[in-house]
Amino acid sequence: MDSTASSSIVFIVSQPRAGSTLLQTMLGGHRQVCAPGETWLMLPLVHALSGARRRVQTPYDTLLGDDALGEFVQTHLPRGWSDMQREMGLAARRLYDTARQQENASVIIDKTPRYYWIIEDLLALIPDCKVIILLRNPLAVLSSIIRTWTKPTRVGFLKDYRADLLEAPTRLAAAMSFDDPRITSIRYEDLVSDPESRLIQLQQWIGVSPQEGLSRYRADSSRTYGDPTGIHQSNTAQSDSLERYLNDASSDASLWRLLDDYRITLGPDLMARLGYDSERLGQQLSNVRPSGTRIAPSLPLQVSPRPSEPKRSLIRLRRMAADRISRRKAA
Fold first, then answer.
1. pLDDT-derived band at 230, boundaries 50, 70, 90
2. Phi then psi for 127, rounded to 5 degrees?
3. What is the mean pLDDT of residues 207-229?
4. In 3D, which of 113, 135, 133, 134 has the Cα closest to residue 180?
5. Packing angle between helix 253-274 and helix 168-176, nearest 10 degrees?
6. pTM of the prediction?
């Protein structure tokens, strides 16, 4: 966990339900750290640059919006998109610095798991930021999503979490392959098993004076986003959370089938890149397999997205914008 110069802005990125609230809360106990919870600040800023390409849903037509913004940027900013990106990054930095200074802190830690969509953008817009990638056994993540957020009573009940389950692991693994000194990673299992030494390493990496005792924390009950349950049940990391998904699967055929399907869907290579042994996890599941798993609904059935029906009134506008872009390129 080598470090470059210290940074005043640190991001924690992960799959949702991977323990990011726990990690941020622990680090937030440091006297030099401001930990505001999940801000989601960078997502709208980044998506404002290319909403249509990123398939962002908005009340306006993103294709037309991208076209109009591009025309402004290319025509009126001396260095085009470089100026736009720099100013967006400076705007974000000013907001983070204001929050950090309000707390008399030297570092602010933004814990927004779904920044997995924009890790490269974070590094580009705020070049001296740092990114902590928090990993957790994906099977435990899926089990926690089901237990905490869903009611598995209908077909497709996981469709709203399709990206969290299928996009996030790939993007996190790709980011770890950047070999960028601004990125480090930590596994939830290692944090829970040896919190004090892992937290000391992270403190040194983000550039604050190591402070002992952060593994005993005080959860902020006023935060709207983050772990709504486990973080408030104790003031220390709980090792029994590591095997809970197996205990739950042993008496629930539907959950067991979803977990095994998820393991197979991610595949051994991706699982290994994330730091987990797919074959070993499969054996652990086999040891607790309940009856009825053969007829339980499969994962693809539950994560299938809703069929989309584009608004007919927008189709013509999209075609007009696309034609205009083609004509401009031809000229």
1. low
2. -60, -25
3. 78
4. 133
5. 20
6. 0.86
